[in-house]
Amino acid sequence: MALVRHRRQLNLRLPLPEPSDLLLLPPFPAPAAAPPAAISASDLETLHVLGHGNGGTVYKVRHRRTSAVYALKVVRSGSDASTRRGARREAEVLRRAAGCPHVVGCHGSFEEACGDVAIVLEYMDLGTLESVLRSYGPFGEPDLADVARQVLNGLDHLHSRKIIHRDIKPSNLLVNSKMEVKIADFGVSKIMCRTLEACDSYVGTCAYMSPERFDPDSNGGSYNGYAGDVWGLGLTLLELYLGYFPFLDPGQRPDWASLVCAICFGEVPSLPERASGEFRSFVECCLQKESGKRWTVAQLLTHPFVCKDPISGA
Ligand code: AMP
């Protein structure tokens, strides 16, 4: 996957209008466009299933009138109440997080008479980074720098709105053929009300949880969650580079006890010799076991690994 090469091809600039074009502008401001009508179930035609998640199914759908294609995430009423509450919360978080090119877009949500909760999402045609890894194999460093930069920008947007994702991992990062990477699946995310509010620890996928999530007291009880998203990013990059989950041997079946032991008491997995110093340092900054020593998203955005010009490498 040459993310950088594709992005370069797509970096087109729109031409500025010629002065003669400006004379053709209407003398009065054009009337404001009416806000788009809310999408309902009857507007959508189901094409096929894209995947299954926690208590729900995601379908590729097409709008009958506009032909726009979306991903529709449906949580069935038969799912347990907490899963349905999670779906409502996810829609609310997505509304709050709107407007960032690195967070999956939400075009609305609705609840059907039967109790199903449905969220209309921007369709990402290449699926998740996990499926890209399975299809194309491990990523090279330039692609990883591109992924890191995009996810950091998404996290920066979320954290500035006091939203903690709490489940950053390859299967929750979507990608499209414009090589845009977007954070998705906000089913266990949390909106912080107070700055130092404690975060419930046992949500998200255990394998990608940071050490302090298993033992919040280890940080003097001031665990606030933002640093957990950085840990998830570091582990994600390592997995995309190695081709397997770093805390387990390739092919090893995960079990809860050995994972917790490895994450809390084991050595942080190291990179092979061939990795550059910049990549090594970036991953180390993300995977500091003590959350207070871990770099913040704002600091990581200044790290040389993501600041390098992706084209020239300078
Ligand atoms: P989730 O319930 O969010 O974990 O999604 C389940 C699966 O559906 C994911 O692993 C993806 O394969 C697929 N999926 C979810 N959201 C989208 C989307 N916006 N565009 C394309 N595929 C998606």
Structure overview:
With 314 residues, this protein is α+β, with helices and mostly antiparallel strands. The chain folds into two domains: 41-122, 2-Layer Sandwich (Phosphorylase Kinase, domain 1), CATH 3.30.200; 129-307, Transferase(Phosphotransferase) domain 1 (Transferase(Phosphotransferase), domain 1, Orthogonal Bundle), CATH 1.10.510.10. Helix content is 34%, strand content 15%. The chain is built from eleven helices and nine strands. Strands 1-2-3-5-4 form a five-stranded antiparallel beta sheet, with helices on one face. Strands 6-9 form a two-stranded antiparallel ribbon. It has a two-stranded antiparallel sheet with strand order 7-8. It starts with a helix and ends in a 7-residue tail after the last helix. The chain binds adenosine monophosphate (AMP). Residues 50-53, 56, 58, 71, 73, 104, 121-124, 127-128, 171, 174, 184-185 line the site of adenosine monophosphate. Adenosine monophosphate is lined by residues 50-53, 56, 58, 71, 73, 104, 121-124, 127-128, 171, 174, 184-185.
